[in-house]
Amino acid sequence: MAMMEEVVIVGGGIAGLATAVALKRVGIKSLVLERWHELRAAGAALSLFPNAWRALDVLGVSHKLTSIYAKAKVDGDGGPIPLHRKALLEALADELPANSIRFSSKINKIETITHEGCSIAVVHMEDGSVIKAKVLIGCDGVHSMVARWLGLAAPVHSGRSTVRGVAEFPQGHGLRKEIQQFVGGKRRAGYVPMTDKDIYWFFTCPTPPQGLDHLARNSEAIQRELIENYAKDLPELYLEIVKSADLSTLTWDPLVYRQPWNVAFGSLSKQNITVAGDAMHPMTPDLGHGGCTALEDAVVLGRHIGTSFIQNGGLVPSEMPRVLANYVAERRWRAVWLITGAYFSGWVQQGDSSWVVKFVRDAIFYRFLFRKLANIVHYDCGKLPTVKT
């Protein structure tokens, strides 16, 4: 017998856990299926801008993080707060009831059936079990199985790759909490202290002609390649930070994104199934908004499903196609703008030195578009509906 769940969320990353918390806040129980055996912490760290903190306020978890992490200093308002990715995941997971997250849960197939005139999602697990859901939400990342089921085109390679890591200084690093960046020669590197002892750093460059397979996830080889070749002429302080990296946090990954027209005109929901986070809108990290946008998605999705739930006194399957379509309508064009803005930002900052790139960068990007892009940090995703007790 297949188990019937109200909401099944595929993926226990930022989008998946935040969506589960949002649904809990409006009285809806969900089941999170995570393929790994524990909370995923890939990426080591991220920076959250004011729009993300508004979402975390709504979810009721921001206070757990602001007591530990301080705001980084940048020009003007809207500066980010860098933090460990695992700390964010744990803060979200701690809000969920026991057994809300099912680890080591790998999916083989997704399909739908019709029951009493309504669509029900059916998830076939690798262990042979079957789970039915009134709503299925794909938060399963860049290579989302749910996105493929919806018919969304696969993400494409941007031509660039990035190294990320966290450096540890047990005795303290003594640096101010300021973002430092180095741009030039088609490279972009930088670092920002998260705490008095930990520093998040990154390095972005064109993907090597031979690809990245030769590094085979070998952290020591990645660190050595960066220090001896790709970043050897960068300031000594930056190299010292790379040398102090916790090797378990080190990754070198290609940067991919979903082409914006696929998000603009693609099927982001179908029947009672939709996507959120990177499963909907994978983007390059040049605006630092992948995680921020996932938190926005969670609140908006929780608001739409929660409003229907409260008005109808329960989750009504026949209502879900309309509810999810409204969620998509609210998120689609912001996602398109962010994907486009992130790609364009990376292109002008790491492009070649041709007169075309210089003209676009100086006459168009910094003069007109940069200010509009800067406004994305002030976006308000709204509130969740109030549950009557």
Automatic annotation (TrEMBL):
<feature type="domain" description="FAD-binding">
    <location>
        <begin position="89"/>
        <end position="307"/>
    </location>
</feature>
<protein>
    <recommendedName>
        <fullName>FAD-binding domain-containing protein</fullName>
    </recommendedName>
</protein>
<dbReference type="InterPro" id="IPR002938">
    <property type="entry name" value="FAD-bd"/>
</dbReference>
<feature type="domain" description="FAD-binding">
    <location>
        <begin position="6"/>
        <end position="67"/>
    </location>
</feature>
<dbReference type="InterPro" id="IPR036188">
    <property type="entry name" value="FAD/NAD-bd_sf"/>
</dbReference>
<keyword id="KW-0560">Oxidoreductase</keyword>
<keyword id="KW-0503">Monooxygenase</keyword>
<dbReference type="GO" id="GO:0071949">
    <property type="term" value="F:FAD binding"/>
</dbReference>
<dbReference type="Pfam" id="PF01494">
    <property type="entry name" value="FAD_binding_3"/>
</dbReference>
<dbReference type="GO" id="GO:0004497">
    <property type="term" value="F:monooxygenase activity"/>
</dbReference>
<comment type="similarity">
    <text>Belongs to the 3-hydroxybenzoate 6-hydroxylase family.</text>
</comment>
<dbReference type="InterPro" id="IPR044560">
    <property type="entry name" value="MOase"/>
</dbReference>
